[in-house]
Amino acid sequence: MTRLSDVLAHPVRALASGARTPHNFGLDVARFLAIVLVLGEHCSGYFLGVAGHGTPLIVMYGAIVGVELFFTLSGFLIGRLLFAVAETDPSPHGWLVFMARRWLRTLPLYFLWLAVMPMVLGPPAHFAADLRRYLTLSQNLAWPMPPDRWFPESWSLVVEEWFYLLFAAALLGAVALTRSTKAIWPVIGVFVVVPAVVRTFIPADGNFIDNIYHIALLRLDAIAWGVALARLERDGSRLFRHPRAAFAAGAALLAALLAQDIVGLGVPMTGMAFAHLQLVLGSAALCLMLAGLLRLPPPVRPLAWIVRTVAKISYGIYIMNMTILVAVVDASLRHGRGLWTIVPVSLALIFLLPYLSFRFFEAPLLALRPRQAR
């Protein structure tokens, strides 16, 4: 008989043996929406660019929402896992096992694609110097990304990896020192408040995106909001008893923020002050929406299968899509091909390669992860 602990520790083996794990369709919907929003902006930028048009502003904002939703979702899932570790094994060993499990999920594909990109796109001008940063995931740790923007989407991976490392150490260390899980909320509070406060003292020098928004240590709160949501769930918050109201409130707040930024609603705030406030309120809005999605029932089977499949390979799509778009567009234009070739070939590769990667590369590695004490 398959034990639940074996299923939780080795999801790939459990799947192969026919066992099923508890599954939340709302989390798949969140992943699906996030990657579709990001992919929509990237594809429209290249496809419309070939046709001589610019990307609509609302589509560009959609990509930002998609990345922020990924951050919130990551924090929520990581928080759930870390709370269990904090209650059972808040030790250096527990922290190392947790990090090993995270690294085996995220780093192999990142490093594999880092090796593939020079062969597909060619190395950037300062590849030797920049490669050290990419290999240590420090390309935007406390400074702007390399100016060549060779692997631009990797900025968010740096935020996530350093959050896993720093937050897990702080949380488990605080619980171990105090011998109480009451230390969890203060640690969450530090990671939510400190980056947001520090951001307000950093000069943007006219470029908020490069000098603040993309700096990893200044964006740790985006993931910490998701951890706070996970803790509220763990504490039995009433927020989760009214999913429709929570989702509606979050969607309304997010829509108001976007409307203020695009057309202006008469809010008497300077652009920079509103940009800082937008990051905080945007995270809060996405938390409310995610709380609502958690109670979402699965729809009819074909649609549910599409959502779950895209959600499962969303990490691979995020890593690969820009490289695929650049390579396909460049090759097509050099051979005199137009959008009728670029669009279907790009979309086919964007979904096929991540699927093959997950099935034959990522999933086998997941089965090798060490078991976390429970």
Q: Can you put this structure into words, describing what you see?
A:
The chain has 374 residues and is mostly helical. The chain has one domain (26-366). The protein is built from 15 helices and no strands. The chain has helices at 4-9, 11-17, 25-50, 57-88, 92-121, 127-135, 154-178, 184-199, 208-213, 220-234, 243-262, 271-293, 301-312, 314-334, 339-366. Helix 8 (184-199) runs antiparallel to helix 10 (220-234) and helix 11 packs antiparallel against helix 12 (271-293). The longest helix is centred in the first third of the chain and has 32 residues, at 57-88. The protein is globular and about 65 Å long. The two termini are 19 Å apart. The model is unreliable at 1-21 (pLDDT under 50).
For the structure shown, list the relevant keywords:
374 residues, mainly alpha
Percent helix:
over 70%
- How many separate structural domains? 1
Query: How would you sum up the global shape?
Result: globular
Beta-strand level of the residues, as a percent range?
under 5%
End-to-end Cα distance, whole Å, is 19 Å
What does the average pLDDT come to? 91
For the largest beta-sheet, the strand count, sense and barrel status come to: none
> What is the H/E string?
HHHHHHHHHHHHHHH
Helix count, per DSSP? 15
Q: Count all strands and give the number.
A: 0
Radius of gyration: 21 Å
